[in-house]
Task: inverse folding
């Protein structure tokens, strides 16, 4: 691909992503970062867990995303009595036109492009686990028969904070299959005022699809061309290793509060999400700042904290924040006592 | 490796060059400062611990240029990684990987940003170490010189040995010291020269002091002998002179009386045996000169006068040799002459009264102060020192203790102090330093120049403190 062609393609990708982001910003006011992270999840072909209090617009956001991408969209409202067959489908006995009776598979709502798993932590662990194979391998096995899910397949799950009544914490294995965990915060007062003025009966504005299937393919193709330099990959690996209490570069807080750190799947996901963040920023090269911007969303649900963290009210975000400050981007690049400073700002890490 | 000739490549090369310069400076400062600190520590230890001289301690400063060279070599071995600097610059500029991938080599904004990056060398730690090192070096230089522990080697006492040897030779030349004693002292000096060691200078100096004190004692004895010879020969000369001036019938009787007086004097004379024998011969002839003619008697008197004058000249000559060898002072000769003159004056008075007996001669010498003739003694001479408590009124009998002074073995000595220079004489009467003996500082009033040896002091102290022991006990 020539430089001109590449430039044109980058411009087109940036235009598509800009339109998508703009449309999402009109759906959920004041949640630009949430929209950016969700788009990163889509570009990375990862699953996104959206967490927030009821009424913050999680479901609305995910439904709007389906509309905008012109993808098949289905929703499952998870309840405590939801069964696994309600998710993946089941075979039922039916009579054919010639009068014979046979077992016919009735696909569940999982057979779609975008699956909205609403309030996923209200279902029992058994039903939650029904999603495991689908999320990891994009296929479902029912009665010994494996069926491939449509491509692309995204699970956008919403959950209430686990401290609420009637919730079942997601098992670690399933949590690890979510690329991102996005926190939806309460909007500011002026944003809330805008929401009140523009939403009658809570209805979000309808949107026409913005990206066609071809454009979506173009986005995924652009992701393949994003360059991840080896120093950045090295930074990602050191960052993930540092989340382990016995890993190199682990801080005192990690050793004290973390029981288990992030998995290699998290490292792969972080690299992929960083590529998406770079693409969303209009670049085809990944920088350290892309990793830093996406690391909390990728890693926060993968850290298993000990009871001391609960006692001390230390969250995974607190620990990750300290890690991002501590782990050097390029250790040993400068000799001891030599510092590189830009615009009057120095870094203690290189001293 | 291909050279990146784009604008961004040039900017990155400039950045890497600046980092390399800062790294070289820092490396040199680090190693140099550590070397300076090590040199300062070594100098402090050398000066304060071993008393090394400034010149020797300053050798440690050689570590500083070596350290600086080591820092430079260390920097050469481990040069700055250009890829690492590129990645770090990307991180500092938040360039989004553009510097690492080089996908936009002519982006002026990025190039300007790279040029704007500042590389700083923070050498504060190194400077602090260098400051500590400089303080230690300065402290070491300001430390006063300490007497070093002398190395195990020969002690430089040749000058002192030569000086004492010259004195012994002078005493032997005037024949006022027994030849065997002179040989023994010479042997002692040779043994001392051979065995004197820098590791135990105290023993050597003490033995040297003892030898010198012994020589001084011989010199004192010799001076007394010469004083007596000078006085006796002067008196005899004056006696003969007085007899020769006598004329008339009584001249023969006077000459015979003078001869008898001379025989009486020469029986306990300080003159050398040869001189005493020659004069004794003449005296006997004079005593028996009653039947001789006037001419024969005068000839005999002339011979006796010449012999007495020769004895007096010999004594003066010996005195002068001892003065030249610094065995006695010039005052000793003057004192001897004054004593002789006084004795001669008294003899003239006695002769005028017609008394030329042996008792008159002895009285003249005694009144002139000649020792051994009834005059005041001026010291113990070579007598063995013995402390005794004659008075037992205190109820405490002090155990008599004889102090050995004849033999000294340097190996039996105990080191009580080490000095690296010969004891220097101070003002008269001042206590000797370092427990050494210095005869030259003894009181001028004393005939013997020796003071108490260190090994005797304990006995002396016990003697004088016996009263305190009783009071306390």
Result:
């Amino acid at each position: 691909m020539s430089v001109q062609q590449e430039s044109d393609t980058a411009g087109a990708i940036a235009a598509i992503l800009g339109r998508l982001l703009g449309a999402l910003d009109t759906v959920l006011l004041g949640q630009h970062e949430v929209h950016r992270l969700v788009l990163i999840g889509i570009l990375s072909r990862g699953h996104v867990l959206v967490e927030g209090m009821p009424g913050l617009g999680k479901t609305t956001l995910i439904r709007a995303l389906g509309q905008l991408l012109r993808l098949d969209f289905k929703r499952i409202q998870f309840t405590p009595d939801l069964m696994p067959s309600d998710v993946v489908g089941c075979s039922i006995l039916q009579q054919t036109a010639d009068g014979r009776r046979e077992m016919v598979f009735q696909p569940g709502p999982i057979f779609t492009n975008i699956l909205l798993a609403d309030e996923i932590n209200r279902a029992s662990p058994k039903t939650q686990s029904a999603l495991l194979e689908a999320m990891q391998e994009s296929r479902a096995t029912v009665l010994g028969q494996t069926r491939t899910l449509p491509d692309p397949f995204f699970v956008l799950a919403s959950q209430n904070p686990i401290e609420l009544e009637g919730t079942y914490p997601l098992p670690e294995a399933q949590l690890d299959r979510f690329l991102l965990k996005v926190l939806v915060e309460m909007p500011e007062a002026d944003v809330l005022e805008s929401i009140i003025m523009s939403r009658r009966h809570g209805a979000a504005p309808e949107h026409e699809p913005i990206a066609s299937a071809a454009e979506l393919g173009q986005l995924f193709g652009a992701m393949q061309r994003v360059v991840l330099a080896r120093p950045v990959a090295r930074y990602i690996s050191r960052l993930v290793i540092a989340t382990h209490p016995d890993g190199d570069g682990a801080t005192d807080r990690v050793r004290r509060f973390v029981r288990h750190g992030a998995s290699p799947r998290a490292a792969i996901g972080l690299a992929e999400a960083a590529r998406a963040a770079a693409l969303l920023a209009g670049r085809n090269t990944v920088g350290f700042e892309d990793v830093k911007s996406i690391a909390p969303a990728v890693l926060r649900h993968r850290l298993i904290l000990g009871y001391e963290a609960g006692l001390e009210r230390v969250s995974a975000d607190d620990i990750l924040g300290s890690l991002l400050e501590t782990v050097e981007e390029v250790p040993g690049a400068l000799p001891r006592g030599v510092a590189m400073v830009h615009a009057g700002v120095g870094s203690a890490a290189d001293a | 490796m291909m050279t990146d000739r784009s604008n961004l490549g040039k900017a990155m090369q400039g950045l890497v060059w600046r980092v390399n310069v800062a790294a070289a400076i820092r490396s040199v400062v680090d190693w140099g400062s550590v070397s300076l600190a090590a040199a300062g520590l070594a100098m402090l230890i050398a000066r304060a611990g071993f008393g090394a001289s400034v010149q020797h301690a300053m050798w440690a400063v050689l570590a500083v240029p070596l350290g600086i060279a080591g820092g430079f070599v260390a920097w050469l071995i481990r040069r700055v990684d250009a890829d690492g600097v590129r990645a770090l610059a990307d991180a500092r500029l938040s360039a989004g990987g553009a510097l690492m991938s080089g996908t936009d080599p002519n982006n002026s904004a990025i190039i300007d940003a790279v040029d704007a990056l500042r590389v700083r060398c923070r050498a504060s730690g190194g400077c602090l170490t260098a400051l500590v090192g400089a303080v230690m070096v300065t402290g070491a230089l300001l430390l006063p010189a300490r007497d070093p522990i002398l190395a195990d080697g020969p002690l430089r006492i040749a000058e002192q040995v030569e000086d004492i040897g010259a004195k012994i030779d002078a005493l032997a030349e005037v024949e006022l010291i027994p030849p065997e004693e002179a040989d023994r002292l010479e042997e002692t000096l040779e043994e001392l020269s051979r065995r004197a060691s820098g590791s135990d200078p105290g023993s050597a100096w003490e033995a040297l002091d003892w030898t010198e004190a012994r020589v001084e004692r011989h010199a004192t004895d010799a001076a007394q002998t010469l004083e007596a010879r000078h006085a006796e020969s002067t008196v005899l000369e004056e006696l003969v002179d007085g007899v020769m001036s006598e004329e008339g019938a009584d001249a023969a009787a006077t000459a015979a009386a003078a001869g008898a007086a001379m025989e009486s004097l020469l029986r306990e004379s300080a003159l050398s045996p040869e001189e005493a024998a020659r004069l004794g011969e003449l005296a006997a002839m004079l005593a028996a000169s009653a039947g001789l003619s006037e001419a024969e008697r005068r000839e005999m008197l002339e011979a006796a006068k010449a012999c007495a004058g020769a004895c007096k000249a010999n004594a003066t000559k010996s005195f002068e040799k001892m003065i030249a060898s610094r065995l006695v002072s010039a005052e000793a000769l003057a004192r001897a002459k004054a004593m002789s003159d006084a004795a001669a004056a008294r003899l003239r008075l006695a002769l005028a009264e017609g008394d030329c007996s042996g008792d008159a001669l002895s009285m003249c010498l005694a009144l002139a102060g000649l020792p051994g003739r009834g005059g005041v003694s001026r010291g113990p001479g070579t007598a063995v020192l013995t402390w005794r408590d004659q008075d037992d009124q205190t109820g405490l009998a002090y155990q008599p203790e004889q102090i050995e002074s004849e033999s000294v073995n340097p190996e039996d000595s105990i080191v009580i102090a080490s000095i690296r220079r010969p004891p220097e004489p101070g003002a008269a009467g001042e206590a000797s330093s370092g427990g050494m003996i210095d005869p030259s500082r003894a009181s001028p009033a004393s005939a013997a120049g020796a003071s108490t040896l260190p090994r005797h002091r304990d006995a002396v102290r016990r003697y004088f403190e016996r009263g305190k022991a009783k009071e306390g006990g």
Observations:
- Residues 7-50 of chain B form the longest helix (44 residues).
- The interface with chain A takes residues 19, 22-23, 26-27, 30, 78, 80-81, 83-85, 87-98, 100-101, 103, 113, 116-123, 125-126 of chain B (CB under 8 Å).
- Strands of chain B lie at 118-121, 386-387, 401-402.
- The first strand of chain B starts at residue 118 and ends at 121.
